[in-house]
Amino acid sequence: MHYTLVLLPSVPALFSSCSPAATEAMETFEKRKAETLASMTSSSPDKSPKGSIDEPIIPLLNTINSHPSYFTTSSCSGRISVLSHPTTTTSASTAKKKAKGGKWVFITHHKADPDSLLNLLFPPTSEIKPPTLTDPSDLVLRFEPLIIAIECKDVGSATKLVSLAISCGFRESGITSVSNKRVIVAVRCSIRLEVPLGGGGEGILVSPEYVRYLVGIANEKMEANWRRTDGFLSALVSSGFGGDEVEESGGGQPVNGEAGDEDSWIKSEATDSGDQLNLLSNGKVPDENHVGK
Amino acid sequence: MHYTLVLLPSVPALFSSCSPAATEAMETFEKRKAETLASMTSSSPDKSPKGSIDEPIIPLLNTINSHPSYFTTSSCSGRISVLSHPTTTTSASTAKKKAKGGKWVFITHHKADPDSLLNLLFPPTSEIKPPTLTDPSDLVLRFEPLIIAIECKDVGSATKLVSLAISCGFRESGITSVSNKRVIVAVRCSIRLEVPLGGGGEGILVSPEYVRYLVGIANEKMEANWRRTDGFLSALVSSGFGGDEVEESGGGQPVNGEAGDEDSWIKSEATDSGDQLNLLSNGKVPDENHVGK
């Protein structure tokens, strides 16, 4: 499937029935959108150190940007990473560790190669450590799913998008900002891993076997994240995004990205079994069991 | 500091300048609020298996509920848990594991006692396993921070609350639903742990030493979560919540819950160093480094 970026000119005539203030706000929206899309199609690198948009997410971004009420301001398609926090021991008797920034020693937006990570964490010759791991550092392995920030023309447009995203499994989506000028939506969900590995004064506290197991789970989560992303894209298309005639109402049938999903991690997240602190559509936190202490 | 729950009667006269539809919506808000607060103060257990509100969160809930534009619909003060997913091997050659529900084998809303968890995961006499761990199960240790769902009188009230929550470090907050009747805000942040421990066919894949290390980190995160919660409560009070005269504008100076915080985990989350996939206030995902594969 191929999507073409559509640059939308400022069309104040469309808003002639609005108040001057509203018209001005919308003109500004159109202007910001045109500028943002122009920078996306520019051949020069963007402001991130990576310098470009994650390739797997481009069809989704183009589809969102094809709708006159929305444009994407930033995104990540999902990633597996190991972050290193250099640690130093303070002179206090409590010997508390203090972070002084952090850096990635491993990052991929694709599935991770377990051997690459194992070679990094457990180098074959222990005397030759990779430069990134020469200092004692607390290491954390993470999986983080898709996240997109989207500016919306108004609160109504934002509400429709949040509702669609939540129905596709991006249940931590929400309107994060509303001002006279800008309405911002974040699309996100809770498919995550956050695993401290040790690595400071005490050395790495997990085994190579365990790291291989973790990478397997991280890769399953990446696949689940991609399936959910595909489901969101399908739901947007069903709602009229990306077509020649955009359906302003944003209706249509949301597609459940997890239908028929055999992945146990996703099952556990997509159901309302109460094992995640997600909110249900009625604004309730799922019931809690109170088993232990 | 003591807060008293204030039951607010339906006061349609206050909204006499509104349209009939808006008045009706607000009357419904007042009615729902009165019913919800009445159920909170009832001596009978609530609908959750735990049956009651987490004690540490009660001052915060009372403060939010003291404002005429808001009421809390559900909450969790933060928790450390181990979830068990029973696993069975399918007949397929891929031997994929399939989740059939899950249950908590450990949960606390306070700091966790490492010895309790160690005794559960590594019972002193290996022949006597606790009933919860007799079947092969994938175990996941989690820390999940404060989450509150709040119904707001209108989008303007919701926006102010989201803005205040984000300024206090609850950067994953947002308006999750807007309809004619109900506007729902979720207050949440990304202080988390999600650590698979093994426990299925392959047995537990981590050492007791590592579990003790994890519990230490989970307890640090619980403390950080409480500090952030306290900061949010202070910011609400500074904005006029909880006082005799509620300031409808919701202004005031937000308190940064992490000021002077020496906790390395929180430093890493509260700064914009790009190690978390949070959105900045300008709607941008923090810059990404592209280090590895």
TrEMBL record, chains A, B:
Which InterPro entries is this protein grouped with?
tRNA_yW-synthesising, tRNA_yW-synthesising-like_sf
Q: Cross-referenced Pfam families, in alphabetical order?
A: TYW3
GO terms, molecular function: methyltransferase activity
Tell me the keywords, alphabetical order. Methyltransferase, S-adenosyl-L-methionine, Transferase, tRNA processing
UniProt-listed GO biological process terms: methylation; tRNA processing
Q: What does this protein do?
A: S-adenosyl-L-methionine-dependent methyltransferase that acts as a component of the wybutosine biosynthesis pathway. Wybutosine is a hyper modified guanosine with a tricyclic base found at the 3'-position adjacent to the anticodon of eukaryotic phenylalanine tRNA.
Q: What is this protein called?
A: tRNA wybutosine-synthesizing protein 3
Organism equals: Rhododendron williamsianum
